[in-house]
Predict the structure.
Amino acid sequence: MMTIDEKFAAAAFTASTAMSYEQVLAAADDAAERSKEIGTSLKRVAADGAAIVYEVRRLKGLTMGQVRVQYSAADGGATVSCTAPDYAVFQDKLLFFIPIGPKESPALGIFRTFSKVLRQALDGVAA
């Protein structure tokens, strides 16, 4: 059985693309919009020309995690990586302190969807 960290690592990726930073930013914003779940969304909180950062938010603005898209220009193309460097983890407990199940994160589903949609957009414009 995969740990929660392994599940996030499995959804992360690094890919080569011919897209410019602005195109990657637009594709990431589209992926964020398409990744929304009931009660959970991605909100862009930073974009500085090299990194695009989104927060995974639940109702009432509770932050459940972070998604980071890193853009590195190279000769004739670019490299884009997508990771979730920070996320909330929960585990069911018996009598308030005895763990009885695997660790889970409300950010995992939305990160998997975001990663898949962004990867498809990048693959559509390969380097």
Q: What stands out?
A: The chain is about 30% helix and 40% strand. The chain has a mean pLDDT of 91. The helical segments are 4-11, 21-34, 108-123. The chain has one domain: 4-120.
